[in-house]
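User: Teach me something about this protein's shape.
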Amino acid sequence: MTVDVIIPANSKDYMSLITTAASIRSLRSSSSNIQFNVIVVEQNKPTSHPLADKVLNYDFDFNYNKVLNLGLKNSSAKYALLCNNDLIYHTGFFEALLQVFRTGYKSLSPTNPLRSLYTHKPIVEGYGVNHDLMGWCIAVERDMIERIGYFDEGVSFWYSDNLYADQLKHHNIKHARVTNSFVFHIGSGSSSLRNLTPEQKAEYTTKQKLIYENARKKYK
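Assistant: First, the predicted structure itself:
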């Protein structure tokens, strides 16, 4: 089985490059049964990612969901992972997701064992960002994401996952966190924000709240 893995990156420094490389290496070592087709969508060009299968560059202003959509539209596998570049994957994490996909779910997230509260339940349904819906790693079935019109690009960065949750609820699509699929979000700091001025960071973070509130109105 082939699974597309879309990883946004803005590799302005050596730390960003080695963080992405370490994450891809971890991904590939997590399974001997899954072929991961890794697509790095890179803002800083020219940048080489030798461990990736494909590198896509873009010239538009940074928009996290637009970057994800670019990767999705340049891939074709039935399942896709939308992932930060600072993740460490536990052995068998995708096989655990796949078992739940086969029960009918179309949108899933793994569990970060260092942050998520323990539960005996195999899955936890919900749309709570950073509780059930982990914006740093979302697994989708392609038919579903195409049906809803891909990820909404109404915000630039912060609240991108909130807007996706609104899309799912609007279309009556359940999301669940799979409690035995383990991915560690090491949180080295977003490569998309590194080296920006305080004013630029505010544009992509706190100032996105009002933009999000307006963008989500279409789903109410």
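Now, about its shape. Residues 14-28 form the longest helix (15 residues). The chain has a mean pLDDT of 93. If you'd like, I can walk through any region in more detail.
User: That's plenty for now, thanks!
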